[in-house]
Every structure is written in structure tokens, then in C-alpha cells.
């Protein structure tokens, strides 16, 4: 029984050896064997070298390949190795290389399925070529070490196309008509498409973006398109579209491999780019930068691109750099600032240039005379009123001084206030600056008297409802009251006088008559603030009372006179 088992095992081994030889013969172009090399199959039927084992810790053999643009080092454990990815539709994706280094041993390769992938060995480089879509693996044997590289081959692949116009990332361009005579007319532009897979790029002209308006010969009255992506404006206004795309080896458009560029030809005005100075001067020491937003004025809503260029052999485009609207000096020399507005549906493509000078050090400029000025040499102001002198200068500080503050004062802003009638001189001084001398000026101030205010008309109402409280027997005082006037600020004057009534007989006999005679005493006054008053009186006399109001020094009319009753005896 034991001998039978050994015999069966030997038969199996011989069968596997024959199978291995058959594979070797079938793949004679991809399997290279050293003289006397022996191939065998393990008991699990996996193809392997008879002497292949796990590499020792001192092994220097290295097997590498590229996956997704990154280099991968193969492991003897196939499960740890990512798949090598190829495709059958692009030349660049159809082949790949597996590189062996760190050893002088002969390299052997065996594809698992030669209908899917082919492998050729030259020196220590294995060239892998896709045959058809599928998944397989390639075994690389170096001495006693064996590496299995998984392979995945696709028959479809996606590309990504990007566009530039005249060297800058963009998908729109505006051209001037071919008949434009403008100095900065832009009649041509070049579209450059780039393929992520490195494929050749094609250009087609359309009247719409739906793949239905293909323009025959890539030319119409609006624009003509060359095979290299060059656009040339025609005589007619309009908008067209350029499709930029790539094809596979079979002439079919790659999946997702297209981009559209919008081309507009129009008769538009030039963008109004202006400069606030004739040139920019910097140095490499203290004055290294310039804010372009303070130098260049652009039309509202437009953006500009800045570039340092050399217009001739005497200029150095490395003299300065532009970043984030800031011009920075780098080297001594002359250059040119190129300002470009690319154009839109309102303005056309416009370029303006400004000279740039970079010095080792900017010399201090000679100082100029002060520009201190005043609006008037003589000003007039009323007492209590103010007037502005209105001095102007580019200096950072102006000082005002009144020679007589009793007539007029002046504050730090040049506002003069009249104090009393007269004449006074206000001295004005402007501090010197780095480029300007100090300045001085005088203003003669005439202060006029303030006009008198007209007296305010005051109307005082007449007091009414004056009442006298009845007297008691032997009373020495009399109480008087009246209706209080509405408002504030009133005072009241109460006057009283005695009234004496007597009967006098006149004539004789039948002609004799009795005549009543009334005599009045002098008015006595008393001033109060309330609407009542108490008056001292004689016990036996009758009195007349009257009241009037006063306000702001003006008296009102007297009230009606009220006569007291005769006192009781």
C-alpha cells in the first residue's frame, strides 16, 4: 500500500512537469529559461519555479511597476500587489513596464493567460502588452524569488480634455471683426487642447453646442478654424463654438473627452484702460512695491491681467514681478507692464503698456515751493458768527494763528469766529514735506458788529373777573381776586383808592337843591404774582379796585373798576 502511494505521487509530479513544459512551449516568446532550469507545479497546481521561495531578509531584488502614476514595489505575497492597469484603446495605455533591479539573476516571466496579456523580457525589463479586455496575472521569477503582478485590461477608458487660449486657461474668447482698424484689434487666437491621457487633440467648428451644427470645412463668415486650433475672425458678427476632443485607436471619440470653447466675433469699443502716472519707478531697497490698483484705472466690472514683458533688447522682464495686483522690484533694469482686458460682450480685447524702471536706489527729489493757497485774502465775519478760511495744500499739516484773539479766534481747521468788531490778521503755516518746502500765508479778517435784534412783540391780556370779598364789621383789610391769565411770566398790579360820597345843599328857598358829590382818593399800588391780593383799608371808607397784568416789562390794560360795598357800622 505504501509503495502504491509513492508511485501515484510520482505519476502526478511527472504529469505536472509535462504540463509545465507544454505551457513553456506555448509561451516560448515570453518565457526565458536558463540552461538546465527545472519547472514544476506545486501540489495545488499553481505554476511556480522549482526553487522559488520567500525571499530572505538579505534579498536586494526589487520588482517595480506603475499604478495611477505612482511607483509600486511588488511583494512576494500576490494579495498585497495592486493591479497593473492597461487598455486596448489607446497607444499610451496599451503597454507598461515591470522593472527588476538589485540582482544579476536571470528574469523569467509567465503570463497566466496569453490571450489577455503578452510579456517580453529584455535584460531586466518586462514589457507588458494588452491583448484584450480581462483580468489575469504575470509571474516574475528571479532566482529563488517569485512575484505575482495582477493585471486588469479595459476596452473602454475615459479621457479629460482642458483648453487654453493663447497660453491661458479659458473656454471663451472674443475677437474683433476682420475689417476692424483698431490699433489693438484682436483678430486671431489659438486654442490649445490637452489630453489627460496624452492623446492627439482634434478641433471642430459648430454653430451650436449640440453636435448638430457642424460647420463644413471648419470655416464660415464668422470665423475660420485651423487644424492646430488657430482661430481667425471673419467679416460677420456672431457666436460659434469649437469642440475640442480626443479619439481612441479605432477613431471613436473617447468617453468624456471633449470640451467646448465659445468664440464671439463683434465690433466692440476698446476697454478704457488709463494710467494715473506716465511710468512706475521702484528700487531694490526701500521702494520695492507698487499697488497697481492705485496706478491703473479699469472700466467698471472688468478685470485685468498683468504681465511684465521686455519690449526690446534693452529691457529685462525679470526686473519685476506681479502678484495679486502688487508690482515688486527684483532686479535693476527697465521693463514694461502689460495690462490686458480680455474682452466680453461690451468691450473688445484691449492691451495697454506702461514703462517700469527699477533702480538701485531712488534719489531724493529736489524740493519744490509750497503750494499753500487760500480762497480769499480778506474775509468778513459778524460778531458771534464763523467763517472758513479754506486754505489748501498737499502738506500733511496746516497751522492757523490769530494775532488778536480779543477780536477773532481761529481753530485748527481754519474756522474763524468773530469776537468783537475790529480787524485782525490770521497767519497760516504749512509744514514742509519730503518733496515740498514749508509755506506761509496771511488772511485779513474784518469783524463787523452783530445787528441788533428787533424787540420781541409782547402782548399782555386784560385782567377780567375782578372780585372783592365782602367786608366784615371793623375789618381792616379787603381781599381781591381775579381770573389768572394763561401762560408764564406774568405779574399783577392792584390799585385801590377811597371813594367819598356827600350831599350838598345849593340854592335858597324854592330853588334849593340837594347835590351828591363824590370824591376819590389817590391810587395806591401793590404788585403780586398770584391772582389775588389783600389790601389794608380804613374801617369806614368805600374803595375802588382795579387790576392789570405785566410781562417782559410791558403792562396790559387796566381791568374794569370794582367798588367795594359800604362797611357795616
UniProtKB/TrEMBL annotation:
Pfam families: Big_2 (PF02368). Transmembrane segments: none annotated. SUPFAM superfamilies: Invasin/intimin cell-adhesion fragments. This is BIG2 domain-containing protein. Residues 1-33 form the signal peptide. Residues 376-430 form the BIG2 domain. Coiled coil: none annotated. Keywords: Signal.
Amino acid at each position: 500500500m505504501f509503495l502504491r502511494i509513492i508511485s501515484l505521487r510520482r505519476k502526478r509530479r511527472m504529469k505536472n512537469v509535462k504540463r509545465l513544459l507544454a505551457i513553456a512551449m506555448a509561451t516560448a516568446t515570453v518565457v526565458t529559461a536558463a540552461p538546465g532550469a527545472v519547472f514544476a507545479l506545486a501540489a495545488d497546481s499553481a505554476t511556480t519555479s522549482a526553487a522559488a521561495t520567500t525571499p530572505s531578509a538579505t534579498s536586494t531584488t526589487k520588482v517595480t511597476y506603475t499604478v495611477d502614476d505612482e511607483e509600486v514595489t511588488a511583494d512576494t505575497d500576490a494579495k498585497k500587489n495592486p493591479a497593473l492597469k492597461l487598455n486596448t484603446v489607446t497607444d499610451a495605455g496599451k503597454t507598461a513596464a515591470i522593472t527588476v533591479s538589485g540582482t544579476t539573476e536571470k528574469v523569467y516571466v509567465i503570463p497566466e493567460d496569453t490571450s489577455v496579456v503578452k510579456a517580453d523580457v529584455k535584460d531586466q525589463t518586462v514589457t507588458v502588452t494588452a491583448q484584450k479586455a480581462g483580468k489575469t496575472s504575470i509571474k516574475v521569477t528571479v532566482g529563488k524569488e517569485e512575484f505575482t503582478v495582477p493585471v486588469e485590461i479595459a476596452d473602454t477608458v475615459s479621457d479629460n480634455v482642458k483648453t487654453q487660449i493663447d497660453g491661458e486657461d479659458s473656454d471663451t474668447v472674443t475677437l474683433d471683426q476682420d475689417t476692424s482698424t483698431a490699433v489693438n484689434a484682436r483678430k486671431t487666437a489659438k486654442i490649445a487642447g490637452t489630453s489627460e491621457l496624452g492623446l492627439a487633440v482634434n478641433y471642430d467648428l459648430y454653430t451650436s453646442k449640440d453636435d448638430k451644427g457642424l460647420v463644413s470645412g471648419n470655416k464660415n463668415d464668422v470665423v475660420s478654424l485651423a487644424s492646430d486650433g488657430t482661430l481667425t475672425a471673419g467679416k460677420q458678427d456672431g457666436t460659434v463654438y469649437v469642440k475640442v476632443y480626443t479619439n481612441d485607436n479605432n477613431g471613436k471619440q473617447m468617453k468624456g473627452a471633449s470640451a467646448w470653447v465659445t468664440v464671439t466675433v463683434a465690433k466692440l469699443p476698446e476697454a478704457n484702460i488709463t494710467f494715473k502716472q506716465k511710468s512706475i519707478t521702484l528700487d531694490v531697497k526701500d521702494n520695492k512695491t507698487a499697488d497697481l490698483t492705485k496706478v491703473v484705472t479699469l472700466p467698471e466690472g472688468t478685470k485685468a491681467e498683468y504681465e511684465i514683458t521686455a519690449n526690446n533688447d534693452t529691457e529685462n522682464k525679470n526686473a519685476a514681478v506681479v502678484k495679486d495686483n502688487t508690482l515688486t522690484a527684483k532686479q535693476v533694469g527697465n521693463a514694461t507692464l502689460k495690462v490686458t482686458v480680455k474682452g466680453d460682450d461690451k468691450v473688445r480685447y484691449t492691451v495697454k503698456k506702461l514703462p517700469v524702471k527699477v533702480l538701485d536706489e531712488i534719489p531724493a527729489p529736489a524740493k519744490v515751493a509750497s503750494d499753500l493757497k487760500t480762497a480769499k485774502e480778506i474775509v468778513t465775519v459778524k460778531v458771534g458768527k464763523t467763517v472758513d478760511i479754506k486754505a489748501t495744500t498737499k502738506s500733511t499739516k496746516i497751522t492757523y494763528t490769530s494775532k488778536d484773539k480779543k477780536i477773532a479766534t481761529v481753530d485748527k481747521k481754519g474756522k474763524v469766529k468773530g469776537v468783537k468788531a475790529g480787524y485782525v490778521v490770521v497767519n497760516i503755516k504749512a509744514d514742509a514735506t519730503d518733496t515740498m518746502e514749508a509755506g506761509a500765508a496771511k488772511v485779513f479778517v474784518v469783524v463787523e458788529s452783530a445787528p441788533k435784534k428787533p424787540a420781541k412783540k409782547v402782548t399782555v391780556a386784560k385782567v377780567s373777573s375782578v372780585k372783592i370779598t365782602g367786608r366784615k364789621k371793623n375789618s381792616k383789610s379787603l381781599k381781591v381776586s381775579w381770573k389768572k391769565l394763561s401762560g408764564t411770566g406774568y405779574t399783577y398790579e392792584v390799585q385801590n383808592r377811597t371813594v367819598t360820597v356827600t350831599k350838598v345843599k345849593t340854592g335858597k328857598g324854592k330853588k334849593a337843591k340837594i347835590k351828591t358829590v363824590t370824591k376819590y382818593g389817590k391810587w395806591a399800588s401793590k404788585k403780586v404774582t398770584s391772582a389775588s391780593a389783600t389790601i389794608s383799608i380804613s374801617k369806614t371808607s368805600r374803595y375802588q379796585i382795579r387790576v392789570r397784568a405785566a410781562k417782559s416789562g410791558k403792562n396790559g390794560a387796566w381791568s374794569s373798576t370794582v367798588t367795594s360795598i359800604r362797611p357795616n357800622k
